[in-house]
Amino acid sequence: MTRCEEVEVEDPLKASKIKNKTPSSKPINDSPCRRALLLTVFRVLRRWRPSPTPRVIILTPHIVLKYGRYVSLSEAHAMEFVSRNSQVPVPRVVAAFESRHGCRYMFMTRIKGTPLSDVFDEMDEETKDDVLRQLRMYIQELREIRPPTSGFVGATDLTPLHDERVYQGALGPFENVKEFHTALCGGFEEPTGHTELDKLIEQQKKQCYTSRLTHGDLSFRNVIIRHNRVVGIVDWESAGWYPDYWEYASTWYSFFDCQHLRRRIDEFLTPYPERLNSEKVRRSLFNNT
Question: What is the dihedral of CA 217, 221, 223, 224, to 10 degrees?
Answer without folding.
Answer: -150
